[in-house]
Amino acid sequence: MNIESRLAQIGSQEDPRTGAVNYPIYQSTAFRHPRLGQSTGFDYSRTKSPTRSVLEQAAADLENADGGFACSSGMAALTTIFALFGQGDHLIVSLDLYGGTYRLLEQILSRYGITASYVDTNDIEAMEELCTAGTKAVLIETPTNPLMMITDIEKVAAWAKSKGFLTIVDNTLLTPFLQRPLDLGADIVIHSATKYLGGHNDVLAGLIMTKGEELTKKMGFLHNSLGAVLGPQDSYLLMRGMKTLALRMERHEYNSVKMAEWLKAHPAVEEVYHPALPHHPGHEIQKRQSSGNTGIFSFRMKDARTVEPILRHLKLIAFAESLGGVESLLTYPAIQTHADIPEEIRKKVGVDDRLLRFSVGIEHIEDLIADLGAAIDAALQEIEGA
């Protein structure tokens, strides 16, 4: 079936006993054994639970994976993946990186002897120079958050495979509806499922998908051993959100492209970072390896003084962290999502005091343009009158 049908039918045929169209929430943490030495397949809910299992199988199916693992958050999923590595291991990581990932690597994993180098992952020569005897994997965000840098997944995965490295791809922003990194050669895909997969700003979750029997077994062991698993109610909420993913992503893309084009033409805006725009340096790669664009992008104001009043004058759009929900959110990365990245590194990458990140929701585009336009106008009037 096409992905739209598979999404809509998640869990709808998994309970033949009752015929439930929405798969039930099995709240139980313990399960009876028929007799000594026999199991129903469910023993203890950390290891495996019915509702979570249906979600994990659906997620693996969407990414063409051999295994799927649902975690209690995106960071829990990332921590579970990083448990593959140990003392002396080294990772090559996307330069423009979500601040929480940077914090985990530099403030926590570094204490256990795991190191990371940050680079433009399209620059194979630069990655070659960073390789050490302990290098074990490449971690790619594509598009990156917040500057929407695009990495050629197929090229990097082929290079990593030639070196014996794992390729890990954060597919949060595009979802399997638009991009499937495992088909392009990646070994592991991660999602902060809180974002587009859940889609309603009401569930905290992470997903891991793996390719290959041995790697899948390792991940299953770590998932159970670390125990940062997703509970049954959140598993249900995530499945419910994923059923409408196709419809939502189509609207997110339409709205974000229209908004990006409008901002590109605005005299108070210096730059817009959206891969759908022809001037974006990753535009052609994005067209080749994905079937569309996400609903998030960033833009840079010409004058830093406009940022605070813009955020204050918003009425429809919320000044809030996170992304991927049906409601539009505007975020200030320098003090929110990327606050844990040192200022000199942030500025070098381009996350400065003029950058705003826009998670465009599914509202009517004319209302969104009117709201942001009015906020920018009010901001310009304030600084002109100051």
TrEMBL record:
<keyword id="KW-0663">Pyridoxal phosphate</keyword>
<dbReference type="Pfam" id="PF01053">
    <property type="entry name" value="Cys_Met_Meta_PP"/>
</dbReference>
<comment type="similarity">
    <text>Belongs to the trans-sulfuration enzymes family.</text>
</comment>
<feature type="modified residue" description="N6-(pyridoxal phosphate)lysine">
    <location>
        <position position="195"/>
    </location>
</feature>
<dbReference type="InterPro" id="IPR015422">
    <property type="entry name" value="PyrdxlP-dep_Trfase_small"/>
</dbReference>
<dbReference type="InterPro" id="IPR000277">
    <property type="entry name" value="Cys/Met-Metab_PyrdxlP-dep_enz"/>
</dbReference>
<dbReference type="InterPro" id="IPR054542">
    <property type="entry name" value="Cys_met_metab_PP"/>
</dbReference>
<dbReference type="GO" id="GO:0005737">
    <property type="term" value="C:cytoplasm"/>
</dbReference>
<dbReference type="GO" id="GO:0009086">
    <property type="term" value="P:methionine biosynthetic process"/>
</dbReference>
<dbReference type="InterPro" id="IPR015424">
    <property type="entry name" value="PyrdxlP-dep_Trfase"/>
</dbReference>
<dbReference type="GO" id="GO:0008483">
    <property type="term" value="F:transaminase activity"/>
</dbReference>
<dbReference type="InterPro" id="IPR015421">
    <property type="entry name" value="PyrdxlP-dep_Trfase_major"/>
</dbReference>
<protein>
    <submittedName>
        <fullName>Aminotransferase class I/II-fold pyridoxal phosphate-dependent enzyme</fullName>
    </submittedName>
</protein>
<keyword id="KW-0808">Transferase</keyword>
<dbReference type="GO" id="GO:0016846">
    <property type="term" value="F:carbon-sulfur lyase activity"/>
</dbReference>
<dbReference type="GO" id="GO:0030170">
    <property type="term" value="F:pyridoxal phosphate binding"/>
</dbReference>
<dbReference type="GO" id="GO:0019346">
    <property type="term" value="P:transsulfuration"/>
</dbReference>
<keyword id="KW-0032">Aminotransferase</keyword>
